[in-house]
Amino acid sequence: MSDGFTTRASSINRALDQIGDKWCLLIIQEVLWGINSFNEMMEAMGVSRGVLSNRLKWLQQVDCLRREEDTAGSRRPRYHLTSKSVDLYDSALMAIAWERAWYQTPELDRVELVHLNCDRAFSPEMRCAACDELVHADDASYSPGPGATRDLREKKVRRRSSISIGEIPSKRALYKNLINVVGDRWTSNVIALSYHGFTRFDQFHQELPVATNILSDRLKFLVEEGIFEQVAYQQRPRRFEYHLTDKGKGLFPWFLTLLQWGDRWCDPEGLGQPMVVTHKVCGNPLRAEVRCDQCGGVLRAHEVRFDLGD
Ligand SMILES: [Zn+2]
Ligand SMILES: [Zn+2]
């Protein structure tokens, strides 16, 4: 591949390169809701036929959707989750938790999540499997794992979209603000780097060989969205660092679900984790679990009911 570049191997980047584009994130959200025919998706997402069919093809290629002919006679194929994409359930739950914490979304506020095991309405929360403490961005430290190589990545992502998600008339938009913030390759990569302590333009640029105007544009967007705040570290000329806000730190559990998903499903060479995350609170390797805040049980897709209050 001539038009490529390499970055530090990262399960988050691998996961994002597979499912991190806005439309892919939206499709997975819809299928989690049980919307699984082409026409239903098109109506629910307000997406064009061409874009939808492109993303559906891509998601099948990376084994996140399985197409099945409908035997009931309508001849419309249905798209189902695979074991790989069902495993993104944690990520969807943490997306909902973040969206609820930082936005008022009437559609989402009406939805009640019920944990069937304890029969209670709950909020998902992320805890360390070893010490049971809530997981926070500041409590993680990073070291290279056995798979700490470099990844060759494509410079141009064919799955491109410039539409703002705010304009998408998605009816069941459970976490569209999150998708708006992270559903772009560079914004999500920049946020992921910031958890490693990166704060300056040059640091981001060294890791991400993207055009400087694009990087500036994404940093500005993330400041506007309240993910970063600018802090001046030099007066003449005035230069800024980009520090994560509480809202930005609040996205950490979502990124961590993707990291764990990438460790499990996006390790083509079978080398093992590119990066080991340690939970500083207890000193153990961080294995994060998404749990019910009512009974403490680990949440599984078939044990959660979505109630749409009217
Ligand atoms: Zn711990
Ligand atoms: Zn429960």
Can you offer a commentary on this structure?
This protein has one domain. The model has no long low-confidence stretch (mean pLDDT 89). The protein is globular and about 70 Å long. The protein has 310 residues and is of the alpha+beta class. The chain has 13 helices and 13 strands. Bound molecules: zinc ion (2 copies). The site of one zinc ion has 8 residues, from loops.
Set out the fold topology.
Blueprint: E1 4-8, H1 11-19, H2 22-32, H3 38-45, H4 49-61, E2 65-68, E3 78-81, H5 83-86, H6 89-102, H7 106-110, E4 111-115, E5 120-121, E6 124-128, E7 140-144, E8 150-154, H8 176-182, H9 185-194, H10 201-207, H11 212-224, E9 228-234, E10 239-244, H12 246-249, H13 252-265, E11 275-279, E12 288-292, E13 304-308
Antiparallel strand pairs: 1-8, 2-3, 4-5, 4-13, 6-12, 7-11, 9-10
Helix pairs in contact: 1-9, 1-13, 6-13
